[in-house]
Amino acid sequence: MTGGSRRAVRQGDGSLDRRQKEEAVSGLNALFCETTLVVIARPVGLKVAQATELRRRMRDAGARYRVTKNRLTRLALKGTPFEALSGLFVGPTAVACSSDPVAAARVAVEFSEKNRELEIVGGAVGAQVLDAGAVTTLAKLPSLDELRGRLIGLVQAPATRVAGVLQAPAGQVARVLAAFAEKDAA
């Protein structure tokens, strides 16, 4: 079950066989090792259409969303910076992950505000564990791309102002010289 593209084939009773469980744990572990942010949510009563919409929004933001089996997820967390989140995996849970330290939180919080069926439980940025309130606060921060844009704007603004200031005296000097030239001609 790597990359979320392959579905695990279930046995007749709905459970996964040992190999499938190992693949699921391995895939989740790899996901946790390559991500910066993990948000844990409870999708209680979430309809298929709502879950599909949430996955699409996550994908558009560069994040991933998965409903997980708690026992397998706790095994996958071992050896990752997110190991401290194990206690939050009780009842129906889903994880949202992103490399951007804000993207998954923003999408999850915006979605949960409009769809009460998704409850934010907590999360973590690296080894820093966050409660639901901290995840909501994190979601309101600008993304890395927005911060980069602001930083570039701040760097470019002084250069533009300096060029304008340097051009102004040159224009004034030219006008003064033109006035002297007209005065001498007269």
Mean pLDDT: 83
Q: Total number of helical segments?
A: 6
Largest sheet: 5 strands, antiparallel
Order of adjacent strands in the largest pleated sheet: 2-3-1-4-5
Query: How would you name the oligomeric state of the polypeptide chains in this document?
Result: single chain
How many β-strand stretches? 5
Q: Supply the helix-strand structural class.
A: alpha+beta
What does the overall shape look like?
elongated
What fraction of residues sit in β-strands? 15-25%
How widely separated are the two ends? 90 Å
Identify low-pLDDT runs: 1-12
Rg, Å, rounded: 27 Å
Order of helices and strands: HEHEHEHEEHH
Helix content: 40-55%
Summarize the structure.
By secondary structure, the chain is α+β, with helices and mostly antiparallel strands.
Topology overview:
Layout: H1 18-33, E1 37-43, H2 48-60, E2 63-68, H3 70-77, E3 93-98, H4 103-114, E4 118-125, E5 128-131, H5 132-139, H6 144-185
Helix pairs in contact: 1-3, 4-5
Architecture overview:
By secondary structure, the chain is of the alpha+beta class. Helices cover 53% and strands 17% of the residues. The chain is built from 6 helices and 5 strands; from the N terminus they run αβαβαβαββαα. It has a 5-stranded antiparallel sheet with strand order 2-3-1-4-5. The model is unreliable at 1-12 (pLDDT under 50).
